[in-house]
Amino acid sequence: MKKSKANLFGVIGLGRFGTALAISLSEAGKDVIVVDRNEEKVKNLRQYTEYAFVTENLSKEALKEVGIQNCDTVIICIGERIDTSILTTLNVVSLGVPHVIAKATSQEQGAVLEKIGAEVVYPEWDMALRLGKQLAYNNFLDFIFLDEQVEIQQVPVGERMVGVSVQDFNIRRKYNLNIIAIEHDRSTDIEVSPDYRFVKDDIVVVIGKVENVKRFERDMAE
């Protein structure tokens, strides 16, 4: 298979995580090679990609045969079988794939995968962190992670902001955050005037580093 590496992804292991990932990439218009030993799982993915392969083993030779070496990014989604995960990751790295991502279920497994040369993800851990944040900050309506360092968050206006103008409160100076919208009276204003004075029940939509957003949230909750 001859494809531009930038447009070709590989997904090895079609559990729930791998299947969802492959479908997501396909629906985003990316070419995806999917690999699993389960024929039924592979068959279900053929409506999303023509590069769906059943392999009895994940040896270097088997992976090369299906074209994994042509990928720019390969994600190994078999974290539960630790020995298979590590060996498969090693095989993919040795094929010269520039970006290798491996799912891990423990810190110990992740440490080994990192030493091999993979970027490690912990899907269950990451999901638990997000759920924990939702539960811990249940007064806040929503949050969106842009990456590990930046997020967009909706935060209800605290008492200290009521009656104060956007310019005078100066959230950028105090918290190093930017206001991207204010929600009030069942409407959203994305053209925020510096003279606007916050009122009770306003929702401020801010963007910035996670630690700065958390500090702003804590202050508004007091």
Q: Can you describe this structure in just a few lines?
A:
The chain has helices at residues 16-27, 39-45, 60-65, 82-94, 107-116, 123-136, 166-169, 171-175, 210-221; strands at residues 8-12, 31-36, 51-54, 73-76, 99-103, 119-121, 142-145, 150-156, 178-184, 187-189, 203-209.
Give Rg in angstroms.
23 Å
Largest sheet: 6 strands, parallel
Give the tally of structural domains: 2
Class of the largest domain, according to the CATH hierarchy? Alpha Beta
CATH topology of the largest domain: Rossmann fold
Strand content: 15-25%
Poorly predicted regions are 137-141
Distance between the termini: 59 Å
What percent of the residues sit in helical stretches (DSSP H or I)? 25-40%
**What class, by secondary structure content?**
alpha/beta
Strand element count: 11
Count of runs of 4 or more consecutive helical residues:
9
- Which architecture name of the largest domain does CATH use? 3-Layer(aba) Sandwich
Give the overall average pLDDT.
Answer: 86
Overall outline? elongated
Main sheet: strand order: 3-2-1-4-5-6
CATH superfamily of the largest domain: NAD(P)-binding Rossmann-like Domain
Order of helices and strands: EHEHEHEHEHEHEEHHEEEH
